Amino acid sequence: MAKATTPKPGRVRIENVNHPGSSTAVDAGLYNAMREALLAVLPDGAPGMTESQMRQAVLRKLPEDLFPGGERAGWWSKAVQLDLEAKAIIVRESSRPLRWHRAPENAEAAGAPTPDSPARTRAEALNAELRRREGLSRR
User: Fold this and answer.
1) What's the CA gap between 73 and 127, in Å, rounded?
2) pLDDT at residue 112 above 60?
3) pLDDT of 18
């Protein structure tokens, strides 16, 4: 569940496209470095990059002082990818393997999920149904 409080100084609140409405506070320096790297390597449109391609490409763009030898880059790339996806800054393509690219400047006009879009609403409904089923199976 999302907290209404602002994160402590030096931290930012990130979202997860797979869990709408929830957020987590993380280190701002690491987040911003990965965000810049990820947006720098992702293409403007389809075909995008696979997750493994993204992880390899961002390594060259990350500051060595924050990610020595690429340490913890995998976790941060996934966390930032999910946050940018939740904010409709990047788009997940419906392909196999999954691919991502930057959203068009006017994402709403291009059909990218927004907080009120049918795609986002369907995702929230599916997540609610999964939580309901998990609750029933624990009884």
Assistant:
1) 28
2) no
3) 85
Q: Evaluate whether 83 touches 90 at the Cβ level (below 8 Å).
A: no
pLDDT of residue 75 exceeding 90, the answer is: yes
Residue 44: which domain range? 11-137
Is 1 contained in some domain? Answer: no
Confidence (pLDDT) at 109: 46
- Please count the other Cβ atoms lying within 10 Å of the Cβ belonging to residue 40: 11
CA 139 to chain centre: 33
| CA 78 distance to own-chain centroid | 7
Three-state secondary structure along 51-81?
HHHHHHHHHCCCCCCCCHHHCCHHHHHHHHH
Domain assignment present for 61: yes
